[in-house]
Structures
1.
Amino acid sequence: MQYQERVGAAQAAGMPRDGERAAAAGLNDANINPATGLATDYLNHFNEAIMLLDLLASCPDCRDDFLDDFLAWRPLSYRAHFEASRFQGRALAVAAYDAADPAIRGRLDTLADAMTAVLEAARAALLADQAPEAIGAVAARATDFLKPLVARAGVVINGEIDTSRRDAPQAIIDGLMRR
């Protein structure tokens, strides 16, 4: 969807109707990227689980302190995350997501599905009664997979160029020339 449609969604979600600038400012104020219609707050859902895995990896003897918290983590879609959150702009975040370009939204959803799959696999491995060293190894391996996925999701949300793409240098130059 085009920027104008995201602005319309923002206005429908309660943003002032005095122009695109006010709507874009409202999206920015709510930490929603006006260009993509997506909010990085969604990544906090995954970062919380990654933080717990990091703690398990660095301190496997602390299993009792952090394992239950990690096992309590449940996957949430973008919409479900914001509907359940205390995020001040949650209604706006959902409206902007609904109005976002389906291709961009699809990329984020695909990355979220991949992160969820890694977290679910880690959960299954950690549910087994394992030695502290094995817990640390599983947690470290999971974070090795997850951190690049979170970074790529951030690229999608922020509308930046994915530098891992083969055509990234040309895309970066093209983006600079358009400014």
2.
Amino acid sequence: MNGMKRCMSILLIATVLTSLVLMTGAAADGKVELRFMWWGGNARHEATLAAIDRYMELNPNVKIIGEYTGYDGYYQKLATQMAGNAAPDLIQMDTMWFYDLMRQGDMFVDLSTLGEITTGVFDQEMLDACLRNGKLVGLPTGVIVEQWMITNKDLFERHNIPTDTALDWNTLLEYGKKVHEESPDEYLLLVNESTLVPLLKLYIMQRTGESIVTDDYELKIDESIMTDAFAYLKQLYDEGVIVPFDEAVSTTVLYESTYWLNGKAGMLYGASSIVPSILTTVDFTVSQIGGPLMADAKDTGVEIRPAQIMSINSASAHVAETAKFLNWLLTDSESIEILKNVRGVPANQTARQLLQDKGIFDPLVVEINNAALKVAGNEPSDLSFNAELTKIFEDCIAKIAYGIDTPENVAHELITQFEAKLIELK
């Protein structure tokens, strides 16, 4: 009987130890096990996995498990994991998610407190963009122009539209009408619900000089401004400037739309980071023209920010080891050469110079970055990216795009819902 008790005690102890090992991420052979989560396309996945493999070769005591997917659904998965205290050690973040996630608590490690992190090599402006409540909640992977008009130059030339002159909101309407009248199966602009929100935000920012909401829960738009914005959007659809809404929303990734692939759309409104993917999928000449700009704009609305931010989960059992890997991933010359430009133009001069010397950057990406730097606007508020506010905006846009209601009524609905949601969030 005593032997049986002894065996049961040993089994219980072994079970407890196994549980502790799993909780701390330490494998039985003494290796530290880390989880790294990111989104992206195949090129980013393959390069990141190659970098992980190389790091594990250099550091045999570390095992890194990659968890990767596309952008669609990524945030929802991450938010669920963080709420359940089951998130990975290292997390690729979008700047717009910090506001919502950090309302739940102190979710991310302040990297400025870690000796394993070398911040001095990064562009100060991009580091500043990673500050929240005075804490450095991540490191910038690269520099990105958030929204920019990327063009099918062949379509522009086919319709005798200038390819080297910046657009304003009137010429966007004029040229779009011209394209559709001359070729009814062609459209100047391809956007969906996720890119229509930033397009209208650009219009509003230029009108008001401010984000639609502040981080102090103050609404900075009124019904007249929104009515004007929705009336303009309605005109774009009525005149055939934009690919019909029901056809555009069926494609999550715009540059995979048949309109774009078949050369039937003149422009995409998207981030500079999609350019490398675009260039591998089409046989027409791809160029850029920037976003439309009002002559009397109070702010350009052009946003330049970190392409992504790499953050360390504050609940990680291995913060120091995760920090060592993160620092190597973004600053080591070997890692930089492996990753190349899969996360945009690097946010530190040393990495940019290294890749430029090797001819890694496509000239068009450099051209977009340089052009955007000349017209960069003020940084938008974090709260303006709130998922619930964005969903309200998207639903209202859909009503305009489908012709369900008038700009006046939809503007009233948006303002009413925004006011209620801000009270709730506050």
